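Practice problem: predict the structure.
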Amino acid sequence: MAAYVQSKSDLEHKLSSKKTFASTGMRVIFKDLSHTVVNSANKKETLYLLKDVSGYFEAHEMSALMGPSGSGKTTLLDVLAGRKNAGKTTGTISFSGQRPTEQFLRRYTGYVEQFDTLIGSLTVYEMLMYTAELKRPMSEPIEKKREAVDTLLERMGLSVCRDVKIGGAMEKGISGGQAKRTNIGLALVSNPRLLFLDEPTSGLDSYTANEVMTAVKHLAAEGVTICSTIHSPTAYCFGLFDRLAMLVKGSIVYFGKPDHGAIVFAQEACPNVKEYLPGYNDAEYLVDLVTEADRIGRAQDLADHYAKSEIKAITDADIDEFLHEDVPIPEHIRQELQTKSSTVTPWWFALKTMFKSRPSRNYQDGTFMGPRIGDKIMVSLLLMTLFLNVGRHFHPDNFMNISAILFMWVVMPAFGAAAYVPSLVLERNLFTRERHDGLYLSFTYLVFKLSEELLLACLASLPVNAWVYYGIGIRGSWGIFFVVYYLTLCCGIVLAYFFASISPNLNVANALLPTYVVTLLFFAGFLMQTTVMPPWWKWYSYLDFLKYAWGALMVNNFKGDDPEWLPVYDKNGNIVHMMTVLENYGLRNASRADFVGYMALFIFVYFMATWAVIQFKKYQSR
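Answer:
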């Protein structure tokens, strides 16, 4: 037992530090923590992802959560970090003597996802500065924020790539190790008291993994409480940790120093399960041993051995003492733990910061601008050259062509809305991470995304509407012609965002949106007049924004001089009446202003529906 029981000097050091607070870190305590979910295959069965786990993490220390796949290490990390959104948690969680609020976890802790979630169009410095402005107090001078970011670049070894664009899958940028350190830097930019990392070395070579974890270790030395899941660390990386919690099947089977004593302890629990062969390092062998024990059905032996051990008794005694000690909590820590706001900055400041940082880069990106401008230029040139001066020949033989032109002019922006779907779907992980980090509210994010798109859409719509209007010779007000097209485009964009928000992936969204738009074509009033629609389908035409868009353009073009067009015959074949163009389409009493107002209402409804989805939908079930 001597190999793994803490030495007297270790114990004395620990006792001497019990009644102190780190300058930044906090002591994290969890006791009898369990997390259950309903079995998807059998709704009556409850599965334990965590079962009565207890332990603690100290400031100035870097603690590891290890175990085979499915052992519960990420579940424990997510429960402590407040990121678990599925299942039921019971037990005690204490941060410096108090249970943390969701708002505290968002504002004063850092969480590094396993997969990097960065904005590829920004440089490393811009990414960190953008986060600093949203995560640090608004009252802090901008010079101080820049100084903090420069210091962070130096601490994380990112100065060499300070002004390099991050890039992505389709664009070369920084290396994998630099991306991982940037991701960690985002979590540190607000000087968090605790840092949670989920598999920070995943996908990295051993040198880069050691480099990343060395940088994290330096943070622990400065006082931050650090907890990280890690699957297969190198020997060097394993030696950086101060504390180890080993889990198997949701139970802790070892909690203590990450040294050779952990191996001796596991071998005592399951002898003759795995031989310590030459070439093994301690971390690799320990994971292999508990994994093999799990596979052969001896996981419970590991849990039972730990439950009866002196290590468990010492840990439980420490936890009880920590929970019952009467140590005054500094007022600033008490206020942080009781904070009510999940964001540091108000919504308008967050919106301003996002506008300052992101659109300028997107507007310089050909892959962003092409789909949003290219289709409008191509379609407008096609219509203008195909129907050049057609509108100036105001003759009954030409009224159908004019009506078709106006119909196609509102249909194309609705179909072109598919170009806006990826913007929301591909940013889903980024949005989820930034909202969890307390950078902004869902409403703020949606307002920013739509404003960025609608501003560009307005600028792009001006020239294409001008040359179509004047090239074809459309009658009526050019202002109405432009406003209707722009509102149709706005409806399409917000509708695209709605389908993007409700769809599980890009493929589903790209299938749903065109299908819905196709249904709108039949009820807009051009392919089939609303007066002859079956009564059981007529209601749908009132929910069709294309009906109001096309109707407004028709009224704008023909209202001033609504000419007679089609004859109406009696049963004897005699002409009894000549219908005008607007009368034929059921638009004789239609109002341009009313139809424009209805379109604005559609935009509002689609916007609110999209906001409700992104606010309440769980995009990541953890």
